[in-house]
Design brief:
Helices cover about 10% and strands about 5% of the residues. The chain is low in regular secondary structure.
Length: about 90
């Protein structure tokens, strides 16, 4: 018995590996979507995870940390925010 494939349609799905209910804690938009500053999801709108394990869109977090009232603290747990991965600049 031979099987001949005449046509094949591939389908793919991607998602960020995040732990915080799949939405940004700042803008409340899903991680597989984009932050309010971006048009397209993906590498142009990356996620950043802190040592406290809270994840955010990078653009949302940068805006948050630029606020004087944030004092460099995580918006979720109020611990000093530092990136979990050293290859992700703030």
């Amino acid at each position: 018995m031979k099987v001949v494939i005449k046509e094949w349609n591939a389908v793919a799905l991607w998602q960020w590996n995040a732990t915080d209910d799949e939405v940004c804690g700042i803008c409340r938009v899903a991680f597989d979507g984009t932050c309010p500053a971006c048009k397209y999801p993906g590498d142009g709108c990356p996620l950043i995870t802190g040592t406290c394990n809270h994840s955010f869109h990078m653009h949302c977090l940068v805006k948050w940390l630029d606020l004087e009232s944030s004092r460099g603290l995580c918006p979720m747990c109020r611990q000093p925010f530092s990136s979990k991965s050293h290859d992700q600049p703030l």
